[in-house]
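Human: I hope this is not a bother. Would you mind checking the protein record under this note? Thank you for your patience.
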Amino acid sequence: MHWTFITGHLDKLLVSVIFLFSLKPAHALDFQSADMLLTTESLTEQTDVIWGFDFLDSNQIIFTLRSGKLKVLNLTNKQITTVNGVPTVWARGQGGLLDVRVHPKNNQKIFITYSEPVKNGEATTAFGIADLEKNSFKNFKKIFSATPSNNNEVHFGSRIEFDDQDHVFLTVGDRNDRPSVQNTNTHLGKLLRFNLDGSVPKDNPFTGKNNAKQEIWTLGHRSPQGLSWQKDTQQLWLGEMGPQGGDEINLIKKGENYGWPVVTFGREYHGPKIGEGTEKVGLMAPIAHWVPSISPSGMTFYTGDKLAKWKNNLFIGTLSGMHIRRLVIQSDKVIQQEELLKDMNLRFRNIRTGPDGWLYFSTDQGQIMRIKTKG
């Protein structure tokens, strides 16, 4: 048996096992952090992984189920509405309907990412936008499909984030095709940058260069599922999973190479080291890394005003770690870390600051919940 097969399928098997043994209602949990007494509130419980979510307004959350459904949660009455007209997805392994984001200037325009079925049973990461009219997607436009495609069921990446200069960023994982990551003529293992209309910005680092994909902003990423814009510092941060160990948080700089698979703190699942070591001149080092793995997924800088002692802290949902990790960052360095909600025994897939000032998260077990003060 080839070890590439094992590394490509271990994450999928782990998700399936944990999901089967964790299908139980999530009850409120009281806890303390930064001298605050906090609690969780369950808002909905579905029967599938809630991969991405965003806020249509202060009362509605739009969210994805990885199996291919797009739904809207009304926070007042807890009713769920299904959105029709979503494109067909390749719902296998880690693939399916993935991230969803509301256009920053028009809440009736919705960006989605998904695993797109293509030729010969293969799939790739796709990115599109549609108008949300009542309960339907209209005028869907596919902006982008990553190349090359393959039939591996892992590492689609697919997190979406916006800056404050009318750009939208998209992560694409390596799809277990390591040689493609350092090749700028592929999209695999890259962070991409577009204008809000889907066009490619003229100041992207590889624009106009031969044998390079014009959408590339950075390269050298493995399985990037975390992406967050820090407004106060105007910086973009990215989280990605290593193999066995080597999970990273990276501060993103235009055109830089973040090393995978040339350098990593992780190892092959069967033991040997990967690449040339943990650092190399010319390759960007992570701000923080974790050995053993915690499997970082969605992440957000808390920007609300209800939880003042968490202001500008970075929150990361973890999968194998089964907790929300709070990072206190000063001068681009992590000075404190805290594990939250580990007793809930959940895989935390995504996390986002709500317009009401509370902190919201989704899980692989199908919940959307929020963290608020107790009492």
